[in-house]
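User: Here's a chain of 197 residues. Predict its fold as tokens.
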Amino acid sequence: MTEPDMIVPIGGRCVQVEVKDHTESATALEAANQARIVEEFSAFYRGFAARLAGWLIWQGASEVDAKDVVQETMHKAYRLWKTIDNPEAWARVTASRAYAERLGKVDAIPVEDIAEHIPHTQNGCELSAADAKQDIRVALRQLPMRQRQLLAWSFEGYTPTEIAEQLHMTPEAVRSSLYKARKKLDELLHAPGGGDQ
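Assistant: Prediction complete.
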């Protein structure tokens, strides 16, 4: 459907211009925006989903829980993509909240014996690294949830001020909690039977 032609003065001459329906151009613009969102989000998902899952595992989540929370988080991110300024920080905050809610809804599940899942190889270094990671994970699980969360943010390179901003805390509270968490983690890892790290 077109509107009546318009006469537009251009440089001293009058030119007749056909005016097309604005819904066609609006639909094309909307389609282009949607394609851009899909492209941007897909790149974010490919580059960050596995990192986010690993980050949740360091906070104490099981692999299954981490994958579920990542999927929930990414689904929300896609729906809200146009409104998200810092996707990585937003995803971490959202995933942390989802994981905390999940912990509140279910009873604690016993930690599986990871030793049977470690691949046996000729290279002892690979097993030592896996053992060290397991020692750290076991020690992290002994820390309060908030301290694990702050350590996970810190391990990703966020400063106490940046962490405080994302988690609505004061930088001093973050620094204090990180100090306590690192001290306790060090004690746990150096305790007899707490690993060789």
